[in-house]
Amino acid sequence: MVESQSPHDESRAEAERARRRAMTASLLVSFLMLVGKLTAASLTGSTAILSDAAESVIHLFATGFAGFSLWYASTPPDVEHPYGHGKVAYFASAVEGTLILAAAVGIGWMAVQDLVTGADLRQLDVGLYLIGGLTAVNFALGTYLVRVGRRTNSLVLESNGEHVLTDMWTSLGVIVGIGLVWITGIRWLDPAVGLLVAANIVWTATGLLRRSVYGLMDEADWEASSALLDELGTAVEEGLIASFHQVRHRTSGDQVWIEYHLMFPGDMPIHEAHARSHEVEDRVDALFPDEDVHVTAHLEPRQHDEAHPDEHREPTDPLREVRR
C-alpha cells in the first residue's frame, strides 16, 4: 500500500522540481552566453565585449558550483549534519560573489590598458546584434531564476538569478557604449564602458558577499522575529500559555529552526500543557508557509518563572529577546 503525500510534502517536492528545472536552464544558457560573447569579442576586438565575456566565464563556473550546492542543500540531515545542509547555500553565494569581484578587477585592468594604448575596433554592427540577442535571453533567464528562487526559498537560485541580471545589465551597458563608438567614432568610449561595467559588478558582488556573511552568522530576521513574538504574545493574551521566553530562531536554506520556552500553571496536567504547546506550534508553523519549520519547545511551570524574575520575564520589546 502506497502512502499518500501530505499537501506540505507535495509542495516541497514541487519546489524541488522547480529548482532543478531552473538550474538546468541556467547551465544551458551559461554555455550559450559564453560562446556568443567570445564570438562577438573576437569579431569586434572590443574590450567592453571581451570584459562582458570574461564575466560570463566566471558566471559559468559559478553556476556549476551553484548547481552542486542546490543538490547538496536538498540532501536530508545525517549524523554529522543533524540540521541538514542548507548552509551550503550561503557558502555558494559567497563563492559566487568572490568570483564576480575577481571578474570586476580583471575587467577594470583591461579597460585601463585600452585607455592608455587605444582600442582596435572592427565589425561593431555584427557585435551589437549578437550582444543584443544574448542580452534579451539573459533578461528572461535572470527574471525566471529570481522568481523561482524567491518562490521556493532558494538562496542559491536567487543569487544565481541576480548574477544573470547583472550580466544582462553589463551587456546592456556594453551595447550602449559600442553603439556610441559606432556612431561617433570615439574609441576611448569602449574602455570607459568597461570601467563602468566593472563598477556595476563590484556593487553586485558586495551585496552577495554581505548576504552570505549574514546567513552564515545566523543574523536575526527582524520581521520574522517580530511576527514570531507577536504570535506567542497572542497565545499569552488568549490564556493558551502563561508566558514565554528564550525565543531563538535561525534560517538555513528553506528550513527555519525555532526554539522557545513556554510556561504553564504548575497544577496543569502535562498532557494538557503538551496539547497546548502543539497548538502554539501549529500557529508558529503557519507564519512560515513556504519553509520547512522545525520547532523545539521547552515546557516549564509558571512557578519556575516566579522563582527567577530577572531571568524569566515576558518581553515588552518585541525584539528584546532576540537582541539579548
Automatic annotation (TrEMBL):
One of its GO terms (cellular component) is plasma membrane. It is found in: Membrane. Residues 24-217 form the Cation efflux protein transmembrane domain. The keyword Heme does not apply. It is a multi-pass membrane protein. InterPro entries: Cation_efflux (IPR002524), Cation_efflux_CTD (IPR027470), Cation_efflux_CTD_sf (IPR036837), Cation_efflux_TM (IPR058533), Cation_efflux_TMD_sf (IPR027469), CDF_Transporter (IPR050291). It comes from the Bacteria. Gene3D superfamilies: Cation efflux protein transmembrane domain (1.20.1510.10), Cation efflux protein, cytoplasmic domain (3.30.70.1350). It holds the Pfam family Cation_efflux. Its main location: membrane. Residues 300-324 are annotated as: Disordered. Residues 242-301 form the Cation efflux protein cytoplasmic domain. The keyword Phosphoprotein does not apply. Keywords: Membrane, Transmembrane, Transmembrane helix, Transport. GO terms for molecular function: cadmium ion transmembrane transporter activity; ferrous iron transmembrane transporter activity; zinc efflux antiporter activity. The chain crosses the membrane at residues 27-50, 56-76, 88-111, 126-146, 167-186, 192-209. GO terms for biological process: intracellular zinc ion homeostasis. Belongs to the cation diffusion facilitator (CDF) transporter (TC 2.A.4) family. NCBIfam families: CDF. This is Cation efflux family protein. It comes from Salinibacter ruber (strain DSM 13855 / M31).
